[in-house]
Amino acid sequence: MHTITLIKGDGIGPSIMDEAVKVINATGVKIEWEEAYAGLSAFEKFGTPLPDATMTSFDKTRVAFKGPLTTVVGTGFRSINVALRQQYDLYANVRPAKSWAGIKTRYDDVDIVIVRENTEGLYVGLEHYLSPKKDIAESLAVVTRSASERIVEYAFQYARDNNRQKVTVCHKANILKFSQGLFLDVAREVAARYPDINFDEKIIDAACMHMVMNPKQFDVVVTTNMFGDILSDLTAGLVGGLGLIPGANIGADAALFEAVHGSAPDIAGKNLANPTAVIMAGAMMLSHIGETEAAERVVKAVEKVVNEGIYVTPDLNPNTKAGTVEMGSAIAAAME
Ligand code: NAI
Ligand code: MG
User: Fold this and answer.
1) Atom number of ligand 1 nearest to Cα 12
2) Which residues form the Isopropylmalate dehydrogenase-like domain (predicted)?
3) Would you say the ipTM is above 0.90?
4) Are the beta carbons of 72 and 262 closer than 8 angstroms?
């Protein structure tokens, strides 16, 4: 029996997470879901976006499965996603984007894993105004040798463990000579320890252009926090949209699994949200807890349903009659 902290989240969160739990339970793996709250729904219920009970549960389980959280702009509360990643030192954010046989996009052979540094960079939360009139603002980026080294190590080790050929570091060391310069220096040092894996460097803006024009040259990509945030939405766009891309937040002794996308308030409550991303995140979570065979069955079932293109949400097929619930049920039913 595994115990997992379940945070359904905001907006489309509860609807897609219910489908993901349905699919994971259908594997037969025994999981005790410990429901906890975070984000806007927690704020409305308990007056805080991150109640102590949620932390107590995650402290104990060390594995969390989380729906998207709405970050209310301008309330003074920091992003709970960022807070959780920093609190549990979930330093590696792994976001695989792969073409699907059944989804027509510009390319049919994209297979890119973004490995995003998840604890520092521009998202450390060091922001303030420099003038009483609040007309000058400053946001600081923090890059440390130790965090850079462990994320680049993670990317190379991931490449080695998953039979991948190449790691590309994306950076802006030409302009941000200190913070990005340090990250690039460390990446070069680590790369030298992995002679079996090809190493490439790209300046982030050019990397975006190359990724759109010739995605095949990218395999594993390692980069700092904000660039990884942006690049992972870009890779989502290459393979069919945000509804498809899972993300694992991995630390030394805790891990949190979620989708790359947010709470999509524009489609919440309409049975339109694609549950694929969180279901695929669930598969990553099953692998993480040692249930690799169940994880493979989930991935196969998702592939079958997505590639058939019938019981899928409208982002994948505009003529569909199915929604979130029908897609989740079809995936659960497709499991052998
Ligand atoms: P978003 O990712 O929620 O939505 C962007 C666009 O993609 C929307 O048009 C939405 O309808 C579509 N979309 C997203 N997920 C989809 C799905 N599963 N199926 C079909 N279409 C989908 O980004 P947005 O609108 O910028 O952010 C909304 C809220 O989510 C904000 O409060 C933001 O802070 C939060 N957010 C939370 C994240 C997390 O909890 N990990 C990650 C990203 C954003
Ligand atoms: Mg993002």
Assistant:
1) 18
2) 3-331
3) yes
4) no
Ligand nearest to the CA of 258: 1
- 272 and 189 in one domain? no
* Secondary structure (DSSP) of 261-288: S---TTTTTTT----HHHHHHHHHHHHH
116-160 confidence digits (pLDDT tens): 999 999 999 899 999 999 999 999 999 999 999 999 999 999 999
Kindly state if the Cβ of 316 falls inside 6 Å of ligand 1. Answer: no
Task: Round to whole Å and give the CA distance between 58 and 56.
Answer: 6
Is any atom of ligand 1 closer than 6 Å to the C-beta of 70? yes
For residue 277, give the ligand nearest its CA.
1
Residue 133, phi then psi, degrees to nearest 5: -75, 0
Could you tell which of 18, 258, 261, 320 is best to mutate to test the pocket of ligand 1, judged by most ligand atoms within 8 Å of the CB? 261
- CATH code for the domain of 291: 3.40.718.10
Pick from 114, 94, 58: which is nearest to 254 by CA? 58
User: What amino acid positions are annotated as catalytic residues?
Assistant: 123, 172, 205, 229
Instruction: Please report whether residue 334 resides in a domain.
Output: yes
- Considering the domain boundaries, does residue 80 fall inside one? yes
Encode pLDDT of 287-331 as tens digits. Answer: 999 999 999 999 999 999 999 999 999 999 999 999 999 999 999
**Domain extent at residue 322:** 1-96+240-336
